[in-house]
Specification:
Blueprint: H1 2-15, H2 18-36, H3 42-49, H4 58-83, H5 92-103, H6 107-140, H7 145-161, H8 167-181, E1 184-185, E2 192-193, H9 207-223, H10 245-266, H11 273-287, H12 300-315, H13 317-323, H14 329-340, H15 349-352, H16 354-385, H17 390-409, H18 412-430, H19 436-458, H20 465-468, H21 470-502
Antiparallel strand pairs: 1-2
Helix pairs in contact: 1-6, 1-16, 2-4, 2-16, 3-4, 3-9, 3-14, 4-5, 4-6, 4-12, 4-14, 4-16, 5-6, 5-12, 6-10, 6-12, 6-16, 7-8, 7-19, 7-21, 8-19, 9-17, 9-18, 9-19, 10-11, 10-12, 11-12, 14-19, 17-18
Keywords: Membrane, Transmembrane, Transmembrane helix
Protein name: DUF112 domain-containing protein
Length: about 500
């Protein structure tokens, strides 16, 4: 514990360096702005700004991307509460009670509770990161290529089967991402694979181009017909955002329960913030003495899901940074940004790059304080930005996407990659496929292949090594259990549907 506090103090020294603080502030500001705008989530923002990290030092680059991530989480709550507009899926639950509070003249209170819940939950998430890290350092050297392969396999399966929609569709998208990841030159043999004779593909597909295509261009193609302006007459003053002591007392326990839900799910790879917010809301309804009042403007219905979303956002960094397993698509992009910088995420990141790890943890607190300072005066500005028509918003985004992707390697071919993956992403969205597992498969695929082949080289081709080593065996067992649970749930659902169809129809 004493060592963790010393490391945290060192992290604050890194976070308060002027250029690091400036980029952290920039990330929080952009994330907040992007979070308010419908359809423009953290994925879009990080995808557009990812090329910028090519010319940056690793520490400010990661601080900026992290600031965008948790800044957008709070920004998304503003549209949900004030305009019943769930800009991003995790905030759909917040609409249920947040917007009725706005209609009842309590929109400011809802935003105030959201701000307090987010800071409280983020602080708990940061504390969990601080005191888990020494434990992670202890187990770091027990992870060889065998264990890394097994845990990444579990991450791939969790990300695929727990994504939105059908688990089978999630697996299909992950496999597509894995296929995209093996395009290019094989690092072991030097053989060029799946390039179709195109010299531009010899270095593989670009993470920036894929992410911009799937989450930037695809969003534009899906939303191209939405040309209406969002009208609002909402006005808020500073005193409206101060909840009373009675309201704070009412929201405190839901805030604590939501934080615990988010912290628990944050450590589990593949579980996005949307699942977390729905579970937190369902738990509040279960423990409430008046569950019928949910949906009419209950403070618990705002505090719990927002707290769970923010604690999940912070704790998500634990599996990403320490094990190299992204919890969701945004984490996969941040993982990609580390790899671009030549930094290998994994158990040894804490000891090899303490400035990145501890600077990032300290920046979470700094960034969350900046969020509070920013949002008090800027709420009115965010509300006005919601009036921007889509016909101006999306072409501007496409322009910045094209400039951003071209600037990475001055290659027009990568703009064609963005276009191709934009069309693929739009078609998959229209067919109700989740595109996030593609990014998960693409980022983890080469690392899974490399560690699998390295493990087999060490064991001279003996596949039993994955079961003989205890840590690896546990993760392989967890992967098998995950598949069995998903298959059983699917069969049970099909059987229940069959029985329902057999029931006689009444007039």
């Amino acid at each position: 514990m004493h060592q963790a506090l010393i490391d945290l103090w060192y992290g604050f020294g890194v976070a308060f360096e002027p250029h690091n603080l400036m980029w952290s502030f920039f990330g929080v500001l952009v994330g907040n702005l992007i979070g308010v705008l419908p359809g423009m989530g953290a994925l879009s923002a990080i995808s557009i700004l990812l090329p910028l990290t090519y010319v940056m030092h690793p520490v400010p680059a990661i601080l900026m991307l992290a600031g965008i991530f948790y800044g957008s989480q709070y920004g998304g709550a503003i549209g949900a509460i004030l305009l019943n507009l769930p800009s991003h899926p995790p905030h759909a639950v917040t609409c249920l009670d947040g917007y009725p509070m706005t209609k009842a003249g309590k929109g400011g209170t809802a935003l105030g509770i959201t701000m307090i819940s987010s800071f409280f939950a983020a602080s708990v998430g940061i504390i969990v990161m601080i005191f888990c890290s020494p434990l992670l350092v202890e187990v770091a050297f027990k992870f060889g290529p065998t264990e890394i392969f097994s845990i990444m396999l579990l991450g791939l399966l969790a990300g695929a089967t727990m994504s939105r929609g059908s688990p089978l569709k999630g697996v299909a998208m992950t496999l597509f991402g894995l296929l995209c990841g093996v395009v290019g030159t094989d690092v072991n043999t030097g053989t060029i694979r799946f390039s179709f004779g195109l010299l531009d593909l010899s270095d593989g597909l670009e993470l920036v181009a894929i992410s911009m295509g799937l989450f930037g261009a695809a969003d534009f193609l899906v939303s191209v017909n939405k040309m209406s302006i969002i009208s609002t007459s909402t006005k808020l003053k500073l005193r409206d955002m101060r909840p009373s002591m009675a309201e704070m007392k009412q929201a405190f326990m839901p805030m604590v329960r939501g934080t615990l839900v988010g912290t628990l799910f944050g450590a589990m790879p593949g579980t996005g913030p949307t699942i977390t917010t729905f579970i937190a809301y369902a738990l509040e309804r279960k423990v409430s003495k008046t569950p019928e009042r949910f949906g009419t403007g209950m403070l618990a219905g705002v505090a719990a899901p927002e707290a769970s979303s923010h604690s999940k956002t912070q704790v998500d960094f634990i599996p990403t940074m320490s094990l190299g397993i992204p919890g969701d698509a945004v984490m996969a992009l941040i993982l990609g940004a580390l790899l671009i910088q030549g930094i290998q995420p994994g158990p040894q990141l804490i000891t090899e790059h303490p400035d990145i790890f501890w600077g990032l943890i300290a920046s979470f607190w700094v960034g969350n304080v900046l969020l509070i300072v920013l949002n008090v005066p800027l709420i009115g500005v965010w509300v006005k930005l919601l009036k921007v028509p889509y016909k101006y918003l999306f072409p501007s985004a496409l322009f910045f996407i094209a400039v951003g992707v071209f600037s990475t390697q001055n290659s027009l071919f990568q703009i064609w990659e963005v276009l191709a993956f934009g069309v693929i992403g739009a078609l998959l969205m229209a067919l109700d496929f989740s595109v996030a597992p593609i990014l998960l498969g693409f980022v983890l695929g080469p690392m899974v292949e490399e560690n699998f082949r390295r493990a087999l080289l060490l064991s001279r081709g003996d596949m039993m090594i994955f079961i003989q080593r205890p840590i690896s065996a546990w993760f392989i067992a967890a992967s098998a259990l995950l598949i069995i649970v998903q298959v059983w749930a699917r069969l049970r659902k099909g059987k229940g549907k069959g029985k329902k169809d057999m029931l006689p129809k009444t007039a």
